[in-house]
Amino acid sequence: MYGSSGGHADAVRVLVAARAAVDHADNEGRTALYWAAEKGHTAAIKPLVEARAEVDHTDNNGTTPLFFAVKEEAIQALLEAGANVRHANNVGCIVLFSMLEEAIVDHADNEGRTALFSAAEHGYEQAVQALVAAGADVNLAANDGRTPLAVARANDDEAAAQALVQAGAQKRSADDERRPQAGADISSTISTIQC
To answer: Looking at domain 87-195, what is its CATH homologous superfamily?
Structure first.
């Protein structure tokens, strides 16, 4: 089913017709639906969903395919298939796009990182814009004091930084823009890209 990661919808359809195990997971617990969602291959998502692939299957980190979906069409396909937008992974992060609900747009994980913080940290400019439009607090800092603007600038992501500045983000101090120390453990951040 790895044809889903390459967007090979025809190959996915053939495998589905041959009764391939649509929920077979790799060593990280990710299924074909994860890979199609992560790459934004809606044409591959649809036959998997039609074959009853589990849209809320959790990987080893407790994340679902919706956590990895970054293109609007892929997100919409998963939502239409009934994906749970309130699912929290193993470290308490909620699916990024559930944050668009006004009541929880500034929900933070155990480290104080909001969806906006994470989107800025990982260069998801469209997500930054969507969260800002939904009313996310652009100046809300994580537990370590860094703001979304600070992490965007620390990662040299000028597009995300500009979107945040246009939304009223304030530079707090030179310390806000410090880069992670060499050898710092960022694995939890990487495994929860969209929290």
So the answer is: Ankyrin repeat-containing domain (1.25.40.20)
